[in-house]
Amino acid sequence: xxxxxxxxxxxxxxxxxxxxxxxxxxxxxxxxxxxxxxxxxxxxxxxxxxxxxxxxxxxxxxxxxxxxxxxxxxxxxxxxxxxxxxxxxxxxxxxxxxxxxxxxxxxxxxxxxxxxxxxxxxxxxxxxxxxxxxxxxxxxxxxxxxxxxxxxxxxxxxxxxxxxxxxxxxxxxxxxxxxxxxxxxxxxxxxxxxxxxxxxxxxxxxxxxxxxxxxxxxxxxxxxxxxxxxxxxxxxxxxxxxxxxxxxxxxxxxxxxxxxxxxxxxxxxxxxxxxxxxxxxxxxxxxxxxxxxxxxxxxxxxxxxxxxxxxxxxxxxxxxxxxxxxxxxxxxxxxxxxxxxxxxxxxxxxxxxxxxxxxxxxxxxxxxxxxxxxxxxxxxxxxxxxxxxxxxxxxxxxxxxxxxxxxxxxxxxxxxxxxxxxxxxxxxxxxxxxxxxxxxxxxxxxxxxxxxxxxxxxxxxxxxxxxxxxxxxxxxxxxxxxxxxxxxxxxxxxxxxxx
Length: 499
What we know:
single chain, alpha+beta, Beta-Lactamase, 3 domains, two-stranded antiparallel ribbon
């Protein structure tokens, strides 16, 4: 039982019963206190529990049920409490409510006015019944079945709709068996009980609507971030899913640190606010990649841009072979010279194809061989004689490891700067003001909230390593210097913004 319920029991069993005026003043003060506590609750289940417990307290009801209106036009049992039976279902108890939802409309589409809770939700009217067994107009067969099964006697009912700012019912508060504070006997709910319950239901509807709107906005915000991340991940099969994995790994690392009770991290603690802030930072850690060109992100081979230019080089080799055969026909080459030259061209082509993949580290001899092949002469489409490989092609084919040039690595790493600029340009609410700082903070430093060594950076590394087998062609450039330069870039950005 909550503290509020315990104090209510104490109030009912008190030997010093207050006068009617004192009792009303006391309950009004209790209502004000409850209103303040409702506005500060952020968890939906605890909020619903507080509403029902408070309603039972100020009306001295033995039992109560809180329903919520669903999108399927039903009333779903959220919380059920009966103090005398010690029956506590729903909410934070972990015990599910085993009852089917109440239909607001029948199969014929007509409003369900036979069930008192449905009637209150549909009409917006409070229903105060002195004795359910003698009342007419409503179906209490379910109540009678419950009483028969448990030995309980459901008598007085107070059913109050909870309506939002658009005058729509979002729930129903139903209280059962008001108790006389002096004798403990079951009595009807008084007019003051009804007014207090209606006032509480109004405040509760506002608090619940606000919390639902906040939750919906957070869900929309996170869905929009996920949409951006999906677009980024779809840009390349070599980084697919990276933006989704990093937030998960970030939170796993942070929770592991939070649960540490020994060593230098023993004093580190995270609040729910810290967790949400870190989660958003993890989700947005690579949003700047929307600015990175696809042909750089998806560069699987050294010569790839919009397409793999190795095929152009294959064509040039065919032209060289054609020219050699023409020279042979003109008697400038004998048979052996032709065979030797064609074999050399085939070997050189296979060598450049191997270099283009970038799977092996280029040795000095390999680089010399690429430059030798580059000096072949061929005639282009305009009939002009040119070197076999352009300077840009030689630069790409002689990349020591991986598939990215230094300039392309800088383009890749620029997404860090772009991410910081994008995050700092957003009008963050107060509880998320540190999100840009988490991304900007150097991975080696401790954050303003004591977050050790930026778990989002470590998760970024881990996600890349886990996914490395799918982008092995990018090898050292993605997992070696680029990572270090990326961390340094974050550090430089942090220092410049601090200065």
